Structure formats: C-alpha cells, structure tokens
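Technical annex, item 7. During the second reporting period the consortium partners agreed on a shared format for inverse folding records so that results from different sites could be compared directly. Each record opens with the tokenized structure and is followed by the designed sequence. A conforming record, contributed by the partner at site C, is shown below for reference.
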C-alpha cells in the first residue's frame, strides 16, 4: 500500500491500483502516521477524482488519528470537484467537526461553487451548529 501511494510512484501506477491500495487501509485496525499522511496526500493531490474520493472515505475511518480532522478541513480549501466537496462536508458533519464551520461557510459564500454544494454546505453548517453535537 505504501509503495503504491508514494508520491514518486504515482506516474507508474494506475488509478485502479491506487484505489485498491487506499481500500487496503480499511483492513487496518489502526493507521500509523505514515499511512494517514499518504492518504491525506492522495486526497489532496491525486489526479484521479475516484482515487481522491476513496482516500477521503478511508480517512474518515481514522478520524481519531492526529491530523486527520484538520486535514479534512484543510482539504476543503483546495478541492474544486463538487463530489469531493460534498463528501468532505458529509464527512466533517458525520464526525461532528465543529471547527469546519468556518471553512464550510466559505463554500456557501463562493459563487463559483455549484448550487448543490452550497446547499449541502448550508445544511452541514446547520447540523454542526444547531443539532446537539458534542464539541470536537
């Protein structure tokens, strides 16, 4: 898994190989910092949207690992694909990450973001700020 997702290996691997490597992380009970870092880099920089989506979903499993929650919030700043933006919003709401409200609010105000993403962002903000969620 680590070899396939290593940044220098990206040109030598197919998207399906990278998705398979990301999915291998679901077999782990616990991820180490190196694996979470690889998944974060894959989420943020892989050229294939499906690989990035798989990495996002894999990272949710490791929500209690250091840096994962912050990485999901920060990823909202750089993701432009609506599918990934919605997946990130859903993930952050699911893990009740109230620190994401400010970044999600930025999506609501960005007129270049698709209406469906802005609508999902508004719903996410409402859920994070109004439903008796425990603080992050």
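Designed sequence (site C submission):
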């Amino acid at each position: 898994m680590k070899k396939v997702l290593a940044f220098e290996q990206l040109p030598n691997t197919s998207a399906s190989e990278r998705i398979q490597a990301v999915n291998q992380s679901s077999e782990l009970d616990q991820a180490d910092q190196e694996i979470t870092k690889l998944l974060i880099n894959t989420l943020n920089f892989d050229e294939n949207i499906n690989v990035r989506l798989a990495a996002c979903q894999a990272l949710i499993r490791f929500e209690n690992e250091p840096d994962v929650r912050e990485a999901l919030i920060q990823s909202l700043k750089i993701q432009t694909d609506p599918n990934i933006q919605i997946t990130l919003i859903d993930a952050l709401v699911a893990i009740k990450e109230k620190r994401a409200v400010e970044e999600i609010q930025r999506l609501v105000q960005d007129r270049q973001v698709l209406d469906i993403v802005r609508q999902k962002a508004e719903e996410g903000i409402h859920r994070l700020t109004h439903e008796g969620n425990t603080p992050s």
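The first helix runs from residue 2 to 5. The CA atoms of residues 97 and 136 lie 6 Å apart. All partners now use this format for quarterly exchanges.
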